[in-house]
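hey m, so remember when u said the tokens were messed up on ur end? i reran from scratch. heres the input so u can diff it against urs
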Amino acid sequence: MKTIHIGLLGCGNIGSGVTKLLGEMSASIRESYQYELVLKSILVRDLTKQRPEYVDTALLTADKDKVLRDPEICYVVECLGGEHPSTEWMCEALRAGKHVITANKMALALHWRELHEASEAGHATLYYEAAVGGAMPIIKILNDSLQANRIDKLTAIINGTTNYLLTRMTDEGLDYLDVLKDAQALGLAEPDPTADVEGEDAMYKLSILASLAFHQHLPVSAIEREGVTHITQDDIRNARELGYHIKLLAHATNTAEGMDAYVSPMLVPIMHPLSSVNGAFNAVFLHGHACGDMMIYGRGAGSAPTAGAMVSDLINAILQTADDQSPQKLARENEDPVPMMSDRVSAFYIRLSAQDATGVLAHVAASLSSHQIGVKALLQPVERAKEGAQITILTHPASEKSVRAAIAAFDKELVRVMNVLRVEAPVV
């Protein structure tokens, strides 16, 4: 029986969850793998804070060196989150030869190169399954199971908070701010929800997923981002009438022309597998040249799913070290900028507020036609909204640059653009 000493950075919701799960699984791990896992030190900011009963307060320390410089600790589980000082401390642990397990998507996405270099310098490995998708093993699938595939597209719902908000808006007819208040009261949204509702969280996760899927690092700076705060019940109802649901999607493609990546709310066809992903669940829908279409679905957030993924990574790290296997690697940072597509083709949803006058619809149609944009569907409710007559247009697939140019050419005295959303293509 070999004893494995572990250090923990942080003991909040996730860190406490890891501590609890290690205690629950210790007997099973001993029996299955012949390893005795010993949690030796837990770094915390506040030694006086009340902790759950399953956290051994004798292990708590405010001195990071008790974890990072203890020669007995070979595995460090980082549960602090955020960019700093998490990044610096993970790099320090890796350079010291300690394997690191993390769920920190921000540090990974923003400091890919530094973490990779620290990993190589210390001949240690960074494990990050829990950084995307919670309990879903999407990192392992991309690193191992799909290595014989060329992945050319992935589309994902990878933020549970926004998916919960949009699901309740769709199912219950509630407005965004009302649902957000409920989500905050339930602890499903942070007091400051900006990172979730403005798409930042999904952007970091997309950077990680696309980098692994396409075998070259996609920096955060190359990803366009749009949140969900401007989605209204008008959009929800119009989408449903047209045969769609609205979801915040993280989308990346890799073509001969370059990569394309963005996070934005999109209309998803009701028959598309992603359309049925509701509540706080996550899913990744991808296409490989050999596997075809595939979707991985599961709980994407919460202390227990995240802790489960981190403890699984810890066990894998121990087994790979013992068997001298080649562990997962970060995709290398590109020396040259990633080539990005100059334009994209998509169908578009355009909601307008218009003057109730003769010729307005003809003006809009002429502007679209002059930019080679076809109209697939048109909604024009009889009732007048408080901001004016409503016109909702669903276009055929068209160049995004052309769509933006056509919209810019609208006469602002006649029509006001209320919302423009991309439309996800149906699964063929």
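this time it looks ok to me. The first strand starts at residue 2 and ends at 9. if urs says something different then somethings off w ur setup not the seq
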